[in-house]
């Protein structure tokens, strides 16, 4: 039913528009051709009268007059030769009343090349012309030519018949063309409408055929991409809900379990202190996770405000490294920074610090003692490239595309030993992009990882 509605609506619209255009064109063409044919008949009739005049002027006698009358006897035209007072000298046929009316019309002046006396082929029975002739330099009389309008109307009738046949063929071809065009236009539209209906029902298994490189093809590809994105978003949401429920359940289970044990009256003070310590650690993890989730939620809702200001990058990074240096030394690790350039950037100092704290925290968690973490800063094509490189365990090649996803962990079996929530790198990526920058990672298993942050340099 939907197909019929769209096809009929577009088809009728195209049909009536094209029909109006064709009717106007046919009317103009028909009128022009009819007018042209009538003019040709009148010109031919006038030329025939002029030819008779020339013969008369060359040899005016009874034989010539008789010869002219005989010439028109079996022709589709009639000739009447008169004197100056319109007295008939000779006629090729008996005059009809309509011819007499034309013949005795008052003629004021007739030029040498003749004159059209009657051209109303639709309402009159004859069309007529007159040509003056002279003998010995003196006007002798007139040559009147007549032609029945039945012949003209027959010619026009045949012309109308040809136009009618052409109109029928044209309308038939027009209908077939419109049916083909509307089908070729509406079929993709209907397919895309059904695809969007599937999307609205939550069914993202949309497969649209290749519809070319025009606007319909672009729309089809956009719907397919939208379906894939929505499917991915749905899967991400399901995975996110599953992950967050698991991540919240685990520390809560620890807290609840050890709280029940710690409440026992016969428990030794040493064991109670150990259990309370575990409860505190799990509470800290839970608090950090909720803080990270809160930050991500604000970023998703575009309520995560970035207060940018001009910052001298090298001194700023040195201050962050000084703050983190005790944590590295506690694990017998080194932290170095290579930045002595006068580089200014437009950043939110508090939010940008969070990026490096998360990256340094990961370096500490996933690196062994006596390894080194380095920070390099350099200019690159008008931007600033910041590299944070560690000598840790590295990231497997198959995991690299997913490390910025929420709750994604490379080593899921050991993640709780390192205390990660799987949200740190997600927050890093969101914060970098909030500063109109980008972040990439290169890593080799067993040799460490390098994170590259690219932001725009602020010129003076």
UniProtKB/TrEMBL annotation:
Protein location: Cell membrane
PROSITE patterns membership: HAMP, HIS_KIN
Molecular function via GO: ATP binding
Residues passing through the membrane, by range: 12-29, 163-182
Gene3D superfamilies: 1.10.287.130, 6.10.340.10, Histidine kinase-like ATPase, C-terminal domain (3.30.565.10)
Coiled-coil ranges from the UniProt annotation: none
Residues of the HAMP domain: 183-235
Sorted UniProt keywords: ATP-binding, Cell membrane, Kinase, Membrane, Nucleotide-binding, Phosphoprotein, Transferase, Transmembrane, Transmembrane helix, Two-component regulatory system
The reaction(s) this protein catalyses: ATP + protein L-histidine = ADP + protein N-phospho-L-histidine
PANTHER family per the UniProt record, alphabetical: SENSOR HISTIDINE KINASE CPXA (PTHR45528)
Protein name: histidine kinase
Species this protein is from: Bacillus lumedeiriae
């Amino acid at each position: 039913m939907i197909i019929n509605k769209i096809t009929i609506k577009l088809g009728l619209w195209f049909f009536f528009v094209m029909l109006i255009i064709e009717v106007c064109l046919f009317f103009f063409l028909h009128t022009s051709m009819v007018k042209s044919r009538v003019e040709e008949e009148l010109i031919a009739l006038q030329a025939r009268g002029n030819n008779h005049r020339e013969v008369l002027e060359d040899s005016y006698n009874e034989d010539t007059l008789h010869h002219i009358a005989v010439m028109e006897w079996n022709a589709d035209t009639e000739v009447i030769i008169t004197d100056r007072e319109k007295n008939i000298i000779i006629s090729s046929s008996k005059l009809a009343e309509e011819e007499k009316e034309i013949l005795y019309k008052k003629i004021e002046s007739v030029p040498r090349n003749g004159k059209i006396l009657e051209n109303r082929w639709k309402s009159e029975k004859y069309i007529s012309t007159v040509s003056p002739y002279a003998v010995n330099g003196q006007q002798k009389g007139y040559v009147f030519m007549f032609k029945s309008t039945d012949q003209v109307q027959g010619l026009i009738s045949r012309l109308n018949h040809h136009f009618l046949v052409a109109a029928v063929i044209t309308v038939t071809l027009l209908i077939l063309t419109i049916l083909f065009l509307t089908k070729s236009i509406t079929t993709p539209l209907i397919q895309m409408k059904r695809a969007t209906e599937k999307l609205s029902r939550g069914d993202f298994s949309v497969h649209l055929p290749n519809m070319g490189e025009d606007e319909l093809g672009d729309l089809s590809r956009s719907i397919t991409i939208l379906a894939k994105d929505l499917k991915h978003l749905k899967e991400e949401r399901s995975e996110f809900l599953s992950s967050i429920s698991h991540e919240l359940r685990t520390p809560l289970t620890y807290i609840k379990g050890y709280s029940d044990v710690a409440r026992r009256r016969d428990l030794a003070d040493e064991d109670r202190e150990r259990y309370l310590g575990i409860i505190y650690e799990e509470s800290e993890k839970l608090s950090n996770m909720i803080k990270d989730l809160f930050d991500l939620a604000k970023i998703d809702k575009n309520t995560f405000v970035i207060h940018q200001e001009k910052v001298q990058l090298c001194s700023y990074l040195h201050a962050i490294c000084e703050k983190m240096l005790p944590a590295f030394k506690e694990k017998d690790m080194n932290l170095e920074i290579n930045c002595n350039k006068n580089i200014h950037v437009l950043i939110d100092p508090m939010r940008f610090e969070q990026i490096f704290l998360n990256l340094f925290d990961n370096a500490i968690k996933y690196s062994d003692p006596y390894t080194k973490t380095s920070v390099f800063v350099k200019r690159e094509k008008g931007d600033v490239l910041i590299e944070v490189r560690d000598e840790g365990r590295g990231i497997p090649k198959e995991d690299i595309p997913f490390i910025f996803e929420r709750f994604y962990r490379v080593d899921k079996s050991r993640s709780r030993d390192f205390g990660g929530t799987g949200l740190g790198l997600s927050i890093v990526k969101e914060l970098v992009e909030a500063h109109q920058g980008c972040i990439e990672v290169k890593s080799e298993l067993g040799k460490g990882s390098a994170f590259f942050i690219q932001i725009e340099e602020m010129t003076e």
